[in-house]
Amino acid sequence: MFEFSIENKGEILDALKKINDNEKQKKNAQFDIMQDKDFTDFISTLDAAGFTEVFDYDEWMLKNGIDFENTGDVQNLFIKAGTDLTGIRRLVTAAVRFERFGSGLLNELYRNGFFSLMADKLNVL
Q1: Picking from 13-27, 38-52, 69-83, which range would have the lowest pLDDT averaged per residue?
Q2: What is the secondary structure of 16-35 as a DSSP string?
Q3: What SS3 string covers the chain?
Q4: From the centroid of its chain, how far is CA 11?
Q5: Are residues 119 and 13 in contact, defined by beta-carbon separation less than 8 angstroms?
Q6: Are 68 and 98 in contact, with CB atoms under 8 Å apart?
Q7: Tens digit of pLDDT for each residue in 86-120?
Q8: Has residue 63 been placed in a domain?
Q9: How many CA atoms lie within 13 A of 59 on its CB side?
Q10: What is the pLDDT of residues 29-42, one digit of tens each?
């Protein structure tokens, strides 16, 4: 794994495009994003590209007032995380780590446009 830099964001954006292409179909309440090959490839790409990072995400979330109880307001999650690359990376890392406990969080975030907004944020950096 290498350190992610904004210069190599293209791989992440390409993976985001794949998962966001069929967004209307995937927003169906019965669709499980974790069973979608494009999405699991996207998660693997995040790790392989060094986008996710090792840090105390519980402490960071507490410090920034972030919780995943209200996943309907994804814009607010990004505002609290910050609009810089570090904030975006940490927010996404925290969400991915939460999912590993089987929470269903990534399904909710996907349906609420989190990953589309992530692509928008990365595109302006």
Answers
A1: 13-27
A2: HHHHHHTHHHHTSTT--GGG
A3: CCCCCHHHCHHHHHHHHHHHHCHHHHCCCCCCHHHCHHHHHHHHHHHHCCCCCCCCHHHHHHHHCCCCCCCCCHHHHHHHHCCCHHHHHHHHHHHHHHHCCCCCHHHHHHHCCHHHHHHHHHHHC
A4: 14
A5: yes
A6: yes
A7: 999 999 999 999 888 767 899 889 889 999 999 99
A8: yes
A9: 3
A10: 677 888 889 899 99
Q: Is residue 52 part of a domain?
A: yes
Residue type, 34: M
Is 58 inside a domain boundary? Answer: yes
- Do 89 and 51 touch, CB atoms closer than 8 A? yes
Domain that holds residue 50: 33-124
Nearest to 20 by CA among 40, 45, 48, 39: 39
Contact 110, 16 (CB under 8 A): no
Total residues belonging to the chain = 125
Round to whole Å and give the CA distance between 13 and 59. Answer: 28
Q: How many domains does the chain have?
A: 1
- What distance lies between CA 72 and its chain's CA centroid? 14
